[in-house]
């Protein structure tokens, strides 16, 4: 049986895996490896034709996983991924139209921001949890640290250009709850279907915290 939706996707683990699935047959073993490694929330991006089927497969066969959909840029995509079983939504940016579609979906969502004005606009609309993207290119930890003073109520999942070396610096910030990344899913491991390696890398990621120590 599928578990209830969490109060916040941001609090499930220090790292949110950002997954690009080329072959839907890989979805279930990949999700099982991530869950076994301690990363239960999984963002499947809509960058490939296999994405919707991957979401359906994980939802149906890996109940321990909380599978979400990323790279959402239209209300139609929101409808499609929720119908496929997505249990949270992530967008690289937002408009009022997209925001209302995500809000109306009934599942948690993380709209993307990269500027102070976007953050303020979302707070004005009652949204406090956001994706900061592209994190490194948009100013990285220095930018997020600057936001924490005037806008302490905003919480972020920075994504984009983050790896195991830089993740602890992000996690040390008071307004960062988790980080998004794909370093635990190296292309050669996926192509070789080396799920034990994916699980080991996921376990290392799940142990990250501020300063690089295990939680």
Automatic annotation (TrEMBL):
Catalysis performed (reactions): 2-dehydro-3-deoxy-6-phospho-D-gluconate = D-glyceraldehyde 3-phosphate + pyruvate
Pfam families: Aldolase
Superkingdom assignment: Bacteria
KW Lyase (keyword) present: yes
Group of enzyme by EC: lyase
Record-linked InterPro entries: Aldlse_KDPG_KHG (IPR000887), Aldolase_TIM (IPR013785), KDPG/KHG_AS_1 (IPR031337), KDPG/KHG_AS_2 (IPR031338)
GO MF, one annotated term: 2-dehydro-3-deoxy-phosphogluconate aldolase activity
Functional pathway: Carbohydrate acid metabolism; 2-dehydro-3-deoxy-D-gluconate degradation; D-glyceraldehyde 3-phosphate and pyruvate from 2-dehydro-3-deoxy-D-gluconate: step 2/2
EC number: 4.1.2.14
Keywords: Carbohydrate metabolism, Lyase, Schiff base
Family to which the UniProt record says this protein belongs: Belongs to the KHG/KDPG aldolase family.
Quaternary state and interactors: Homotrimer.
Name the UniProt record assigns to this protein: 2-dehydro-3-deoxy-phosphogluconate aldolase
Native organism: Streptomyces viridochromogenes (strain DSM 40736 / JCM 4977 / BCRC 1201 / Tue 494)
Upper classification of the organism: Bacteria, Bacillati, Actinomycetota, Actinomycetes, Kitasatosporales
